[in-house]
């Protein structure tokens, strides 16, 4: 199924560091790459470096004066609240521009690789900073690397791009940046804004011609409900839209152990979603797939395993969930975090779900969320919202 896959990596990607105690700890990507290397996953992909995004590339989506403000903060580490730097979510630090531009450059490198045909799939696990706005840092995100990559593809003449965001938080920055652009279909599955930051992502936010799609799921939703919602919304819209490229954001903070959110997915449910997105890339976008990381704050038990599964899926060589994590990696975990590492690549779950075509239950909050989305956007696409 899979064509050549490329993983973009530079050790300096771990320099995106808001300091001790901040949830977005760079050790999560360090441990991901170490686990992927330990299990031989990186042997099955082309591993390439990257450079930082230029000011012109960042300005495809960000205001020039915002980029200049970030550079000023970067020079001395002093915050600038007018652009959202210096808050508890986005602390200021010296070098913030360089670190953020490198992440954007890595996702751009992934996009270029697929656009130029050097690879069919490309992954940047350090990316997925989907909350950054045109002129404001937000939600741990300074530069919006998925949006920069999408805008770059559009600048190269690509006419249709689909963006699917499975982070537990609404992909508000990417949605906002392309809200009025019918060339970009944004689909976000997230915990309801009633209970989680950023407070947006309602089904009624439909954008240009129904190209903003939001599935707002109730707190407590687990594998079966989440997968039911995914299949009720994502495949029919991608099949209708027929994008030239599929860009995906794989925040794994929907996991039951994540300390910042309230969904209840397992490693196995998340891995299942990644496999479905891979299939949909081939079915609807000629296989052209650009994948990023995103949120994820259970730094040992969740992020490294899930994103190693993502890289393996993109390589065309998925990992058997029963695979042991490996003693060398476990020792690294103990050394870097003093935590007890997981022993295998699974939570021991076997996700199953009933398709919405089996019937709609108006008493079920997940079904109500599904139908709110389908009723809001399916008519724009000539699709029947009823199961």
From TrEMBL:
<protein>
    <recommendedName>
        <fullName>Acetoin utilization protein AcuC</fullName>
    </recommendedName>
</protein>
<dbReference type="InterPro" id="IPR037138">
    <property type="entry name" value="His_deacetylse_dom_sf"/>
</dbReference>
<dbReference type="Pfam" id="PF00850">
    <property type="entry name" value="Hist_deacetyl"/>
</dbReference>
<feature type="domain" description="Histone deacetylase">
    <location>
        <begin position="22"/>
        <end position="312"/>
    </location>
</feature>
<dbReference type="InterPro" id="IPR023696">
    <property type="entry name" value="Ureohydrolase_dom_sf"/>
</dbReference>
<dbReference type="InterPro" id="IPR003085">
    <property type="entry name" value="AcuC"/>
</dbReference>
<comment type="pathway">
    <text>Ketone degradation; acetoin degradation.</text>
</comment>
<dbReference type="GO" id="GO:0004407">
    <property type="term" value="F:histone deacetylase activity"/>
</dbReference>
<comment type="similarity">
    <text>Belongs to the histone deacetylase family.</text>
</comment>
<dbReference type="GO" id="GO:0040029">
    <property type="term" value="P:epigenetic regulation of gene expression"/>
</dbReference>
<keyword id="KW-0006">Acetoin catabolism</keyword>
<dbReference type="InterPro" id="IPR023801">
    <property type="entry name" value="His_deacetylse_dom"/>
</dbReference>
<dbReference type="InterPro" id="IPR000286">
    <property type="entry name" value="HDACs"/>
</dbReference>
<dbReference type="GO" id="GO:0045150">
    <property type="term" value="P:acetoin catabolic process"/>
</dbReference>
